[in-house]
Amino acid sequence: MAMSIGEAARRSGNSVPTVRYYEDIGLLRSIDRGPNGRRLYGWPEISRLSFIRRSRDLGLSIVEIRSLLEVSDGRSDCGDAQTVVLTHLAVVQQRRAELQALEATLQTMAERCGATCVGGSSIACTIFEDVSPGASR
Amino acid sequence: MAMSIGEAARRSGNSVPTVRYYEDIGLLRSIDRGPNGRRLYGWPEISRLSFIRRSRDLGLSIVEIRSLLEVSDGRSDCGDAQTVVLTHLAVVQQRRAELQALEATLQTMAERCGATCVGGSSIACTIFEDVSPGASR
DNA sequence: CTTGCTCCTCAAGTTACTTGAGGATGTATG
DNA sequence: CATACATCCTCAAGTAACTTGAGGAGCAAG
């Protein structure tokens, strides 16, 4: 039942230092220690660590996760959790739109570069025109 | 012709400390100083700063930008620039695909949350099931 | 001549961790 | 039982790319 930090890390998909780090910043409270001073983790901790891991994968910041965990701990209500998610959704949508535009720009840059100057000198390289058009003024 | 750091920053779209920072890390070399010790910028510097700014907007790292600038300075060839751009393009494509999946997940989470527990306690909040499904085991 | 903006340098803070030093303990093998 | 190797501990510093702040000087306008 009681797991070492290494096992907790493996099961939750975090690295060992990261698990300690989460304890340091207060995302996990009161990790019991064995007589040898080593941390002992139970299922609730693994669950919490997995939640954090997944949320990070989804791009949520530690601050956002902290507020979700407060909901989970019953210290604020579910509406708050929805707010966090919706706010983050808007950010993600925005970011994705930006990436889409960026992707097109990069593609154009690479294609033009390939057509005009691969292996050649930098003088004719269109990348610099693409990236800094009319920079002088 | 000779501009203050404030003007250079405004024209290139960077903040004043950022412009100083780029000098510190060697992206800009040898900024002349006036008799009062203040930095003086000319058009080539503005151009370079604008290039850096745009590249950062495109998501390129300082390391990547440094190698592009080396091409621009004639210290490596154009093919290298294309490689940087293509490598970055692959990263962007990957990232955008991930964001797309994430967007769908967040949307589902918010909808389910809204349907079941807005204003209620966290006990029924589906967000936690969505984010950490079967975390205990 | 005083107010207020801009400039200077140097140091520390930010985010979310990772990496490393230095040392103790646990587990497997000879 | 001894030795090797993995794992654990704490504390400190490093990472990217800047931002923010302290403390002080210069310059232009009213």
Brief account:
The first copy, chain A, has six helices and two strands, in the order ααββαααα. Chain A has 137 residues and is an all-alpha fold. In chain A, strand 1 and strand 2 form a beta hairpin.
Description:
Two copies of one chain form a homodimer. Chain A has 137 residues and is mainly α. Chain A has a domain at 5-76: Multidrug-efflux Transporter Regulator, Chain: A, Domain 2 (Orthogonal Bundle). Chain A has helices at 5-12, 16-24, 43-57, 62-72, 78-116, 126-131, and strands spanning 32-33, 39-40. In chain A, strands 1-2 form a two-stranded antiparallel sheet. In chain A, a hairpin with a 5-residue loop joins strand 1 and strand 2. In chain A, helix 1 (5-12) packs across helix 2 (16-24) and helix 1 (5-12) crosses helix 3. Chain A is elongated, with a radius of gyration of 24 Å. The relative contact order of chain A is 0.08. The model of chain A is unreliable at 132-137 (pLDDT under 50). Chains A and B meet through helix 3, helix 4, helix 5 and helix 6 of A and helix 3, helix 4, helix 5 and helix 6 of B. The first copy, chain A, binds a DNA duplex (30 and 30 nucleotides) through residues 4-6, 15-18, 20-21, 25, 36-39, 56, 61-63.
Main attributes?
homodimer; 137 residues; mainly alpha; Multidrug-efflux Transporter Regulator, Chain: A, Domain 2; two-stranded antiparallel ribbon; 2 strands; 64% helix; elongated; disordered C terminus; DNA-binding
Largest sheet of chain A: 2 strands, antiparallel
> What is the H/E order of chain A?
HHEEHHHH
Structural class of chain A: mainly alpha
What quaternary form is this? homodimer
Strand residue percentage of chain A: under 5%
What's the helical proportion of residues of chain A?
Answer: 55-70%
Instruction: Determine the most extensive contact between two protein chains.
Output: A-B, 57 and 58 residues
Enumerate the strands of the largest sheet of chain A in spatial order, edge to edge or round the barrel.
Answer: 1-2
Low-pLDDT sequence parts of chain A: 132-137
Distance between the termini of chain A: 68 Å
